[in-house]
Amino acid sequence: MDCHSSTMFSINIFIKKLLALITTLRKKTDIKPILRLERTWKKKDYTIGRLFFKGQFFCNTIEDTDRGLTSDMTVEEIKAIKIPQKTAIPTGIYRIDLNTVSPKYSKKDYYKKLCDGKLPRLENVKGYDGILIHCGNTAEDSAGCIIVGENKAVGKVLNSMATFERLLKTLQDCSEEIFIEIV
């Protein structure tokens, strides 16, 4: 390949990547999340939030400590701040997949019977893998995931299984693509 051909090839690759980026950004601005998680009580060892479905309060959440991560940060910036298993995921908008089997939770009888181990999974969370919405009571149950329930005790959510079942049914009944916005 001569110098001119090589330059044209590089320009074509650059243009394709630029168009893909523009398409991705355009899609992100068109997204209308049906779930919104507002982190309202940020404590030293946990974060309590309020989860809304289509603008209506649905339940409370508990997560690990909010350390100010955002989806605008680079993976390197996130990893410099993140304490593994003890840091809430970055704020941002994430698509939720309901069709991926969790290797961890598919082995648990409760999840096996309820949903064949297919828990709501947040996709493309920078610096994190396998972020789910599931049952639990404290930030210790979280490991970066979102725990749903009722915040009726300090540092905890209660009635998590009933809340999770209600949320899962609500999400499974959705006809549109599911996105969550975390603020």
The radius of gyration computed from the alpha-carbon positions, rounded to a whole number of angstroms, is 19 Å
Count of alpha/pi helices: 4
Low-confidence stretches: none
Q: How many domains is the backbone divided into?
A: 2
Mean pLDDT: 90
- Measured between the Cα atoms of the first and last residue, the distance is 50 Å
The portion of residues assigned to helices is: 25-40%
What is the makeup of the main sheet? Answer: 9 strands, mixed
- Which H/E pattern describes the elements? HEEEHEHEEEEHE
From the helix content, strand content and strand pairing, which structural class follows? alpha+beta
Q: Which oligomeric state applies?
A: single chain
How big a fraction of the residues is strand?
25-35%
Care to count the β-strands? 9
| Shape annotation | globular
Describe this structure in words.
The protein folds into 2 domains: 1-30; 32-182, no CATH class. It has 4 helices and 9 strands; from the N terminus they run H-E-E-E-H-E-H-E-E-E-E-H-E. The protein has helices at 3-30, 75-81, 109-115, 160-172, and strands at 35-42, 47-53, 56-63, 92-97, 121-122, 133-134, 146-153, 156-158, 179-182. The radius of gyration is 19 Å and the shape is globular. The N and C termini lie far apart (50 Å). The relative contact order is 0.18. The mean pLDDT is 90.
